[in-house]
Predict the structure.
Amino acid sequence: VIAIACALKPKLLIADEPTTALDVVLQAQILDLLRDLVRENRMGLLLISHDLAVVTEMADRLTILRRGEVTEAGETARTLSEQQHPYTRELALASMHVPARPKPHLAGSAKPLLDVEGVGRVYPGRRISLLRPTEPIRAVDDVSLTIEPAQSVALVGRSGCGKSTLARMILALDKPTEGTIRFRGEAITGKPEQALRPARRDMQVVFQDPYGSFDPRQKVEKLVTEPLHLLEKQPAKAERREMVANALHEVGLGPRDMDKYPHEFSGGQRQRLSIARAIITRPKLVVAD
Ligand SMILES: Nc1ncnc2c1ncn2[C@@H]1O[C@H](COP(=O)(O)OP(=O)(O)O)[C@@H](O)[C@H]1O
Ligand SMILES: [Mg+2]
């Protein structure tokens, strides 16, 4: 998308959160490219972002919006250093916020909740020419890791290194071509769908792209309660609405949002809906991609 937008050498480029979904290495490259276009082609750039670090690097001037209204506007460095408006100050503080970390949970004591052992995934390659054989794509190669109850584990790497593929296999949405994945001691690799139900109930996912994961014709209440069909005992209507309201509250949305459609939310709010959906069953494992 960025390549298409830049190929025509536009005089004005409007970039709405262009690098939000990218890894840091790619983000730096794309921002360099945009900066070069501004300098060399004397292009105007309207950069829409929530990321003050990016804004500080990129913008000559900035305009801060809150609930559709301008709270402050001016030269970037001065506005961000003087922080005249309280909201600017709030933004600056929040962007430096590092979540408070509880006592680290050291591995080794408890039985693992998740045990990934020597897992690999090879995709058959696409045939480019009739004469040449296809080259298989090795997306994941011999990965082992464990997660214990009450433990958070990060999977880090640049775009295309196999993170999402591994996540899909952990969630039993894709099958490994090598290795075993155990959830609470039971292998989930190669199990039939019916036998996976208990694991599906206790594992939830927040996907990278919340657009793709919501049916646009369903209201939020329906979308957020989707994992509840996996529960053994189905909650009654009133209880369901209460569960949705609680989950929405936990991600900073209100009970009235229950009766809206996904397109009525911003990208960030949709991401929060997807988190609300992931936590509504109080799962034992959340995969956040
Ligand atoms: N269904 C598929 N068919 C063929 N190749 C795939 C498929 N899914 C992913 N890949 C390839 O596997 C590699 C890892 O992809 P992915 O796990 O999505 O990376 P990440 O999430 O780390 O950015 C990429 O090279 C990608 O092109
Ligand atoms: Mg990915």
